Amino acid sequence: MARNKFDVDETLESPFSFSHLKRAIKYVKKYRFRMLMAILLNAATCITSLFGPKMMEWTLDIAVPNRDFRLLGLLALGYVALIIAGIVCITIRSRIMVTVSQGIIYDIREDLFAHLQKLPFSYYDSRPAGKILVRVINYVNSVSDMLSNGIINMLLEIMNIVFIIIFMFTTNVMLAAIIVAGLPVFVLIIALLKPRQRKAWQDQSNKTSNYNAYLAESIDGVKVSQLFSRQEENVSIMKRLASACRAAWLKAVVISNSVWLSSELLTQIVFTLMYIAGVYWTGGEMVSFGVLLAMGQYVSRFWAPITNLANIYNNFINNIAYLERIFETMDEPVTVDDAPGARELPPIRGEVEFRDVTFGYEPGIHVLEHVNLKVSAGESIALVGPTGAGKTTVVNLISRFYNLDGGAILIDGEYDIAKVTLHSLRSQMGIMLQDSFIFSGTIMDNLRYGRLDATDEEVVAAAKAVRAHDFIMEMEKGYQTQVNERGSRLSQGQRQLIALARTLLSDPRILILDEATSSIDTRTERLLQEGIQVLLKGRTSFIVAHRLSTIKHCDRILYIGDKGILEAGSHQELLQKKGLYYALYTAQSRLGGVEDPEAVLV
Questions:
Q1: Whether the Cβ atoms of residue 241 and residue 7 lie closer than 8 Å to each other
Q2: pLDDT tens digits along 279-299
Q3: Residues 162/163/165/167 CA torsion (nearest 10 deg)
Q4: Is 292 helix (H, G, I), strand (E, B) or coil?
Q5: Could you tell me where the beta strands, DSSP code E, fall in 243-379?
Q6: pTM of the model as a whole
Q7: Of 272, 307, 385, 445, most Cβ neighbours within 10 A?
Q8: Is residue 394 within 8 Å of 560, Cβ to Cβ?
Q9: For 134, which DSSP code?
Q10: pLDDT in tens, 217-257
Q11: How many angstroms from the chain centroid is the CA of residue 555?
C-alpha cells in the first residue's frame, strides 16, 4: 500500500492479538499498588452504597410499622454516613487515578518517541507526519485512559455486580433469579456485535488519521497554498476527509449504541417481570412493600454496572484499534541500528572507501550499482550530475542513513561503517543536508544543537567563519534572538548559514555539505567560500552542488550518473576532457553570461 498519501487508509501489519494486551499491562504494573488502593476504595464505595436499599427496606418494613423512632433515627444517620463515606472514597480514588493515568501517558509516549528517534529515514520517507503525530498524541491519550480508568472501572463494575447479586439473593431469591435471567441474553448480543464494532472503530481511526495527516501537511505548506491560490481546492479536500470522518464515526456510534439500547431494553423487561412476580407472588400473596422497593432499586443497580461494562467494552474495542497502531509503530524494525557486537569507532583520520557498493531505496530498483571510490584523508570531493542521479544518496550512505544492498563502506581502510556504532560514526561527521531545519529557540541554541558543550566564543567563531555573525548581530537580541520553528523569521540564505555554522562547530573529521550555498546570494557566497576553504583544510569533505562555480577548487570532482561514477578528476582535468562535466559547466557558464568556460577558470 502507498503509505505516503493522506487519503489512503492504513492497514494493520498483523491482526490484533491478546498478546498486545499482555504487553500493555507492563505499563500498568508500575502503578499496581496505587491501582490496588483505588480498587479497595471502589469496593468500599460499592458496599456502602448497597446498604442504602437495605436501610430503606428496614425503614419501611420494621421501623415505620413498629413506630420505632430510635431505629428510624439511627437508620437516617447511618444513611447520611454512608453517603459521606462514599464521597470521600470516590474523591481519593479519583485523585489516585489521575496520577496513574498521566503516568501511563508519560511512559508510553516516552517509549514511542524514543523508538521514533531510532527509526531510519525510510520510515519517514513513506509516511505523512500527521499520521505519526496522531499516534503519539491522540492514540496514547485514549489508550492510557483505558489502561488506567478502564481497567479499574471494569473491576469495579464486576465487583458491583457480584455484591448486588449477593444482596439481591439475601433479600428475595425468586425475584433475584428473575433479574439475573436476562444476563445471558445480553452477553449473546455483545458477542454478536463485537466483530462489527472493532471493524467500525478501526475504520473511524483510519479516517481520523487521514484527516490529521492532511491537516499537518496543509499547515506546513500554507505559504505555497496561498501563493497558488489553492484555498478553495484545499477546503474541498478537507471537507471530503471530514465527511469521511463523520460518516465513519456515526456508523461506529450506531453499532456501539446498539449495546446500550439492548441493555436499556432488557432492564425494562426485567423490571416489569420482577414487579409482576412480586405482586402475584405464590398464588396472589404479595411480597412486602419494603422488599419490592428494595428489589426495584437493585434492578437499576444491577443493570447499571452491566450497562457501564458495555460502555467500557465499547471503549475497549475503540482503543484496541489505537493500541494496535501504537504497538505497530513500536514494532517497526530499526533497520539502521548498531549491529550485534558493533564496536566504537576510534578517532579517525578521515579516509573513506566505497567497495563495490550497490544501493536502492526500493527493492530491485538500484540508484547505485557496484560503485568503487577511495578518498584520502583531508581530500575534498565534489559530487555533480543531473537531478536524481544519486549525489545525495552517496553522502547519505557515508553517514549510514540507509543500509547497503551490497558492498561495504570503510573508514580509514579498516572500519566497516556497518560494524561500528552509529553514535561513534556520526559524532565524527558534520552533515548539512538540503533542508536547513531550524528549531524553535534562540539562535545560540540552534548553533549549539550538535555540540552542547561548546563555549560562546567557539559558537561566535564558527558563525564568523561562515559569515553569519554580522546578520546575527543586527537582530534585536543578537545570538539570544528567538526564532520560530523552521526559522520562519529568517531568510533561506540565513537559515543555511546558521545550519552551516552548526555543522562546522562540531569540528568533524568528515564534512558533508549538500547544496550548502544553493540559496545564498552571489556576494554572500563569495564571502562564504573563503570561510569554507579555510575550514575544509585538514578535513575530508564531500560537497554536493548544482552551482559548479562553488566547487572549482575541490581536489576531485565526481560526475554521478547511470548508477555510478561516470567521470572523475579536478576541475581543469574534466574541462580538458570535454566530456559530461565540460558540457554541464559550459551550459551553466552560458546561462551566467560567459561564452567561453575557460575564461572563468582560476
A1: yes
A2: 665 444 556 667 777 777 777
A3: 170
A4: helix
A5: 352-359, 368-375
A6: 0.62
A7: 385
A8: yes
A9: H
A10: 787 777 677 766 778 888 888 888 888 888 988 888 888 77
A11: 44
